Amino acid sequence: MRLNIYDLRVEYTQNPLGIDTLAPKFDWILDSTERSQVQTSYQILVSSNEENLANDEADMWVSGVVESDQSIQIVYQGKELQSSKTYFWKVRVWDKHKVATPWSQTAYWSMGLLDKREWKGQWIGAKKETLDQKEWENPELMPSAFLRKEFSVSKSIESATMYITALGLYELHLNNQKVGDAYFAPGWTDYNKRVQYQTYDVTNLLKDGENTIGTIVGTGWYAGHVGMLGTCVYGEQPYVLVQMNITYKDGSVEQVVTDQTWKTSVGPILYSDIIKGEYYDARLELDGWSTPGFNDSNWQQPLIKDSYDGEIVSQLDPPVRVTKNMTPIEVSKSPSSSTIFDMGQNMIGWAKLTVSGEEGTKITLRYAEMLERDGSLYTENLRRADPVDYYILSGHGVEQYEPHFTYHGFRYVEVICEKPEAILSLSIEGKVVHSDTPETGYFETSNEMVNQLYSNITWGQRGNFLSIPTDCPQRDERLGWTGDAQIFIRTASFNMDVARFFTKYVDDMVDAQLDSGAFTDVVPDGGWIDFKRRKYDKGETILRDVLHPIENWLTDGNPGWGDAGVVIPWTMYQVYGDKTVLVKHYEAMSKWIAYLEANSTDFLRPNDTVYGDWLSIGADTPKEVLSTAYFAYSVKLMAKIAHALDKKEDEKKYSNLFENIKISFNKAYITSDGKIKGDTQTVYVLALNMGLVFKEQKQLVASHLVDNIKKNDGHLSTGFLGVGYLLPVLTENGYTDVAYDLLNKDTFPSWLYSVKHGATTIWERWDGWTDHKGFQSAQMNSFNHYSLGSVGEWMFRYVAGIDVDSDIPGYKKIKIQPKPGGGLTYAKGEYQSVHGKIKSEWKIEKNEFTLKVSIPVNTEATVYMPGVGQNEDRTDVQLVENANSVTIYQVGSGEYEFVSKIG
């Protein structure tokens, strides 16, 4: 038996990591080909010294032999942990025969700064006179500041750890080397409440004698443009805070921190803004600016920020990194004779430029998702975003350029040379950038169009998971819309490991929660509520014809959006088995329920929502029906959360509240023949999915859903909120054939319509482009929006058949229940759960259905086979049922192959 350390829940960024929690958690994956070796007990050792741990000595925590099959989310229970200290741990387990494994390899984590008072530096930035430069005279687009500090090292170093954060964005350098591979640090938070910091081990970058720390600071979300909300939402200019702790071999400690002794200047980055792009003049480069001995006599003293009242916390979410490099698949000429590079994939990031030519030659890089009919870039849908980077050559041989604090959503890059004859060579490479959430899912079928749809779903996730789950990556928005996030999180969790990503985002949601208890539409708020109220008071429209006129524009807690504050934590618990997010935010979730209850009449929510079933097609779902359904759903989940946390009184309270809402919902909205007010696909889908239909009417209600689909010529009409539940509800109510028919549709509106027309990501609108109308209104027409890609959940749960048992979270107990159909001859799915990899692969040949499954060690699965199962002679397979056209088996970990007769 082999024991692998899988994931320390404390190991979030660079090693050693700064963790500012006193309760790290431990996970491990067991790997064995023998089903008998299932964990029954474990023992963990934690030591402050790696050498002692090698001798099985632990001075921090000896768990003892714990009788438990739990191998995830084990909470540290040892001695008090100290700031900046590194700790080492290992684990062994016992199988059901009471045989112990060898000790695992040693893993480690390091603590961060546990108290804000431990930060000894000052927040520094550039003074106004430093930022004012003649080369660029736009007060909203300030240059990026360069800051530096020289210091001496005179003794032998044991270790050196750098802690850094910014109100804005930073790039860190030490002795002429960029530190780390992350971008857009420290990430987007509500800076009035908290800012994240990062930790880097820089021991190997220091040298005897003189050393230099350098930082470049950009405006980012703090002082740059935020969506369509304007600039300087949080502050007037960016600042950085740095602290390096150097521990010498003689035991002494020295700190290098930001203070008035640093020097600052501006350089080649005339501006770098998330929404407005970057302007870089290579002639102004500061060669050697982060090396000792650089002449900074003309540099200025920094501006010192008086104070910062928010929390300074260790980064929770994965860093933003370059995860893929893309080579153009085609190069063409535009109508204006510029060069257009087709990357072959709608993506986010930027183009890396490699060029040589004359000094002072200006290169313009313009980005777009689509082309006009004449072959020029389609940029009208970007609104006030400027998808442009400018680069001015230094003339020093082959030059390479990548922007610093901006990103673009694009497939096409137009390169415009001010003087084409001055260019000797030029090429580009696409850099795909997003929060580095590891891929966990794989999905494939015999239908290439469906495979492309799955690819589009994953690329939509890559394109919008950057520090927060944004709605779109290209236009002047890029905001964290909560409704989009909650409907997509289950799909997202199949595709990638989003545990840490959404842990941070739930913190953001709670930071933005209003005193009333309402969770907001946009998180971080970024001034959204103030912005829409200000615009409303002035009688202005937000997005002109798209959002005007809208009733109830000022509603604070919009159904399906505000409910993300409950849906997301519950989904995280289901997928990852971690109760922490439920415990930490239980009060906030309870406040949301209290807000809903206080703003309801006779358990029915009013028609005061803004968005409804956003961007549905030809269907007008009554907002009060949708609102009440989501009210019930949040309450239903709160009852389950209370049960998980053993809050029996609350469980009873919320269960009773749900039943009261259900009764009122039926009286107000469901007729005796099973029709629901509005008669849209979404009202039926929500009522069935959220348990609001009494048993005797379920088939009637489901049949009306199917009738509605037939009336739409077999097409869907659901918007953002209905689409995620549409196919699961059909499948669960016996209409798998209708679900597959919707999946396979390639006529408008459908998922495959955009695929048929060359889409490589999920579009915001079903009609973003149609062959009969062309482009939809440019005021709101993104071609990289993940919401309608929530069908990915159904593809994993029902096509591949991989699902979690909702009563036993974290895939400790697994459901394998594929639902073949739609003309598919095979489907494959893999999912890297917290317990290990789960595989499900099926094929149909004539009337024989073959299913291969792989179940990780220390888990068990219930396998549902369609049709009549053939004799199974394995002793480790338990036949549960073989009737009613389904055969059910119970299995432990291992590899299995099942065969059944169908048809």
Care to describe what's here?
The structure is a single chain. By secondary structure, the chain is α+β, with helices and mostly antiparallel strands. Helices cover 22% and strands 29% of the residues. It contains 18 helices and 48 strands. Strands 20, 21, 24, 25, 26, 27, 30, 31, 32 and 33 form a 10-stranded mixed beta sheet that branches. α13 (681-689) crosses α15 (720-732). The longest helix is centred in the last third of the chain and has 22 residues, at 623-644. It is globular, with a radius of gyration of 28 Å. The model is unreliable at 1-20 and 541-549 (pLDDT under 50). It is an enzyme of class 3 (hydrolase). This is alpha-L-rhamnosidase. One of its GO terms (molecular function) is hydrolase activity. Its EC number is 3.2.1.40. Residues 806-870 form the Alpha-L-rhamnosidase C-terminal domain.
Layout: helices, strands, pairs:
Layout: E1 2-4, E2 25-26, E3 29-31, E4 41-47, H1 50-54, E5 61-62, E6 66-67, E7 74-75, E8 86-94, E9 107-110, E10 124-125, H2 128-131, E11 145-153, E12 157-167, E13 169-174, E14 177-178, E15 194-201, E16 209-218, H3 220-223, E17 239-248, E18 253-257, E19 263-266, E20 269-273, E21 277-281, E22 303-304, E23 311-314, E24 320-326, E25 330-333, E26 339-357, E27 362-368, E28 370-371, E29 377-378, E30 388-392, E31 399-401, E32 408-417, E33 423-435, E34 441-445, H4 448-462, E35 465-466, E36 468-469, H5 482-495, H6 499-512, H7 528-537, H8 564-576, H9 580-584, H10 586-598, H11 623-644, H12 648-669, H13 681-689, H14 698-711, H15 720-732, H16 736-744, H17 751-756, E37 769-770, E38 774-775, H18 792-800, E39 802-804, E40 813-816, E41 826-833, E42 836-845, E43 848-855, E44 860-866, E45 868-869, E46 877-883, E47 886-891, E48 894-901
Parallel strand pairs: 15-23, 21-30, 40-44
Antiparallel strand pairs: 1-3, 2-7, 4-5, 4-6, 4-8, 8-9, 10-22, 11-16, 11-19, 12-15, 12-17, 13-14, 13-16, 17-18, 20-21, 24-33, 25-26, 26-31, 26-32, 26-33, 27-30, 27-32, 28-29, 34-41, 35-36, 37-38, 39-40, 41-42, 42-43, 43-48, 44-47, 45-48, 46-47
Helix pairs in contact: 5-8, 5-18, 6-8, 10-11, 11-12, 11-13, 13-14, 13-15, 15-16
